[in-house]
Amino acid sequence: MELAASDIYQLYQPVRCNLRARLNKLETSPQKADAFTELLRDLGKRYEAAHLKTFPAHLDLSNGDFEQRSQDTIAAVKRSEDVIYQGVLFAGRESIGEEDSIVGIPDLLIKEGESYVVRDCKLARHLDSHLEVLRQLELYGWLYEQTFGSPPARLEVLLGDGSLQEIPYDGGANALAVLDEIKQLATAPEAPYEPVGWSKCGGCAFHDTCWPAAERRQDVALVPGIDQGLARHLHELGIDTYSQLLASYTVESLSETKRQQGSHLRKVGSAARNALLHARAMAEGRIIHMGRFPFTLDRDYVMFDLEGIPSQVDEVEKIYMWGMQVFGPSTGDYRPALAALGPGGDATGWRRFLVEANDIFQAHGDIPFVHWAVYEKTMINKYINRFGDHGGVAQRVLDNLVDLLPITQDAVVLPDPSYSLKVVELRAGFHRGMEEYGGSWSIAQYIRAVEASDEAVYSEMMDAILQYNREDLEATWAVFAWLANNFGHEPNAAA
Fold this sequence. Notes:
Layout: E1 2-4, H1 5-12, H2 18-25, H3 35-52, E2 59-60, H4 66-78, E3 83-85, E4 89-95, E5 98-104, E6 108-112, E7 115-121, H5 131-148, E8 154-158, E9 164-167, H6 173-187, H7 198-202, H8 207-216, H9 228-236, H10 242-248, H11 251-256, E10 258-261, E11 264-267, H12 271-284, E12 288-289, E13 301-309, E14 318-327, E15 334-338, H13 345-364, E16 369-371, H14 375-387, H15 393-399, E17 401-403, H16 404-411, E18 412-413, H17 421-427, H18 439-451, H19 455-487
Parallel strand pairs: 1-5, 2-3, 7-8, 13-16, 16-17
Antiparallel strand pairs: 3-6, 4-5, 6-7, 8-9, 10-11, 12-18, 13-14, 14-15
């Protein structure tokens, strides 16, 4: 079988998935990568290119077919080239009854004494959750040793924060064991059971292969509250669907069930009730009213939503848009506070946000700022620590924050696999005008806009981000109003 270092990446990223590793080797056609994945690839290439500039005399072997590049790599090492970029290393081995051909393409081979340092460039800032980086470097070391008869001088990774970290070389044992796993997954008569998950599967290139199949078979892993370890445990017991879960467990028995969480066995505990309620809602295809929605529509509220850049894209997590709009009897204009371009731009965005928020308080008093999930609260606290809180406006926002997500969860159990706003808004009857949207899309769009040399292109892309943020606010309000109109009373005890 033909195996490659890139197969290891497919196994582990974005999270480990045995089924993705199998589908990748079986050449199942994946969907196009999402905008954020494409952005990370581009940023990775740029980071690599920037590091390459520190070696102006390098030999570039990035073009051509693998066989020719492999021969050129061997020749370059024999003549002691100082730096080799994108050399190709091939080796064969006997494994599981057949000969494997294994290929790896390290970013750099750097001459050191009588040997070479093998170095890769990665955007990751630490290796704790990036086993694929360790295994890929170990495989490069093994390929180097098989090709040239001795181990490399050292294995190194240039991390996203600019630091160099040495990877211990184990003779390739761990990397080859992972390739054996991948080969077994690819050649097994049947696909392995792999539980789906909302965040796990969202950005995967094989989402459209796996997710609809899980929905058709009513996979128990779709049930909110059934984590990956519990889904695997249930599968081992022959419990694979919502209905089987409901028939097999009570709240008490499920709460006592132990499943693997990390390196420990832990009881399901209090999550059992929530899981069984969701299984019931999904099996019956209906919403279960659990509690009274505590707000009414006879006053004004601010819908509040932030767009930010995660730390793996920039040196720190930054907000580039603070979106606000008053809804209710006195519905107002959309009020975005945008970060400025250039160094310190997010500080400018923060000051603009404080001005806009203060204007709203001046007009409406202590009006609730309604948001979805914890991101807004987390980032306001970070920005207070980062840039201060002139006039105490940010603290006033914090004091008036209303997180609509847990309130929704307390009010209704939905027959859906997630309480993502993009899912719940559909229950509320809200439909967006944009064909392409999402937090990852917004991040990618913003980075592309900032880098655009054409002002017209920049304006067009920023207009799209503004539209997306505004629709997020409208969606939040639609969910709020739907809950107030339909669940603003105590639930029927028969439900």
